[in-house]
Amino acid sequence: MLCKDDNDLTPDELMCVRELRERLKNLEFTRRYVTHDWLKLAWARNLDVNKAEALAWRHEDLLKKLPIREIPESEIQRNFSAGFSVKAGRDLDGRPMGWVRMRFMAPSAIPILCGIKSTWMALDAALADPASVRLGVCLVYDFAGIGLKNITLNVGDIKKGALAVGLGHISHISRVMFVDAPFIFRAAWAAVSPLLPSSLTEVVTFVNTTHDGDVEWCAGVCEPSELPAYLGGGVDGDYYPWLTTRLV
User: Fold this and answer.
1) For the CRAL-TRIO domain, which residue ranges apply (predicted)?
2) Spatial distance between the Cα atoms of 222 and 233, rounded to a whole number of angstroms
């Protein structure tokens, strides 16, 4: 499933990967990289060597500043078991969809760092094959059923999460959808989006649906069968075992 060696790379990918290996040979976390990791880094910035190198250094800096690696697996599993993420299929362009149900995300109970690490792991699982790496992932945040306990007005936390997920992780995020986002979130996003790079904000779209069984809303997103089961789609199953299998 993973890209096993350089023979699986295209000429453009190989050129980018070789240059990145040379530039980042002294970076701590890249010493453990296999070919698939280098492919992910290259495509995270669409084979732009300079931007991919900058991302690698930013990721290293985040790992030093934020104790993300100290979040125990038990907290991550509890987060996913609560329904934070569900299995979904692919969008119309073939991107794997990483689907998050915000009603199961409570900032007071789930620290922002746990949410960041959970999302990083979900991204890694979605991008565990070369085809998905090249297309990029479609992140979907479903706000249906949320209440005040699910909302944070802490602009700092919103910015920290957006930067850590969108600009601090080695992943190719080519689409982000906010489904049924409430006014209060849209207002918070409007406040923080000018502080974020256009490379992140320009891939964001807002989608509305009634969540009453009518799947016409997804016509421009994916086939109805690719939706999660709770929305009437055909993709079901326990998310955490799937994630850990993909990450092995």
Assistant:
1) 72-239
2) 10
Beta bridge partners of 138: 97, 175
Query: Is the Cα torsion angle 189, 190, 196, 202 positive or negative in sign?
Result: positive
Tokens matching residue 243: 């994630």
Beta-ladder partners of 179: 142, 207
Indicate the length of the chain as a whole number.
Answer: 248
Q: Pull the structure tokens for residue 166.
A: 């969108």
pLDDT tens-place string over residues 83-114: 888 999 999 999 999 998 888 876 666 677 78
Nearest CA among 141, 171, 172 for reference residue 158: 141
Domain ranges of the chain: 11-65, 73-245
Q: Is 215 left (phi over 0), alpha (psi -120 to 50) or beta?
A: alpha
Q: Residues 194-217: pLDDT tens digits?
A: 877 787 788 898 988 865 566 678
Q: Is 168:59 a contact under the CB 8 Å cutoff?
A: yes
Long-range contacts of 70-79 (CB under 8 A, 24+ apart): 71/113, 71/114, 71/117, 75/114, 76/114, 76/117, 76/118, 76/121, 77/240, 79/110, 79/114, 79/115, 79/118
Gap between the Cα atoms of 7 and 3, Å rounded? 9
